[in-house]
Amino acid sequence: MTERSSIIVAPSLLAADFSRLGEEIASIARAPWLHLDVMDGHFVPNISFGPPVIAALRKHTDAKFDVHLMIDPVDPYLEATAKAGADHITVHVENAPHLHRSLQTIRALGCRPGVAICPATPAVALSEVMDLVDIILVMTVNPGFGGQSFLDSQLAKIRTLAEMIRKSGREIILAVDGGIDPRTAPRVVEAGATMLVAGSAIFGKEDRDAAIRALEGPFVEQTPG
Known about the structure:
The protein is α/β, with parallel strands linked by helices. Helix content is 29%, strand content 19%.
């Protein structure tokens, strides 16, 4: 199993109290990354925020901004997202018809490129871009809303992608987003995940520091029930 020090926990701002985002960010100072979901109400059935909010948040933290673009089209907004302060930009294999070019553009903008994959999309869809990505994000819920239940069917995909990463010989971060909490975290880490995106499991707790530590591990066997 992956050692605790190698697990990245990225709190998902989507679960935070939007009326006091500065305070919410301060409460998760332990986390090295902050996951920012940009949604357009078209590619996914929800609307969140865009580059102006990302730029406003940038002054409140030194955390790495891990921006997940769930918008269509996505390419016209890559530059604005980078200029707003993103450190990593993740696009979907499903919303980037010229994925190879999109990933190249993200790196040219000075950001780490990532690609996300929805539950119904097979792992093989990423086989031709393993040389371009720094982050692979497996959605373990259907994207659009926080608080959904973890999809057990995605564990096999995580294992497949972990093996694809091993065979690539590259240091690619394997992230998981959706229904991540202290009960599901050990399962995805065992399957090969090295990064956990969590919203309600962190922002839904009074002690955010303790909530992050619970996801970092070390993990113990969880008893169903």
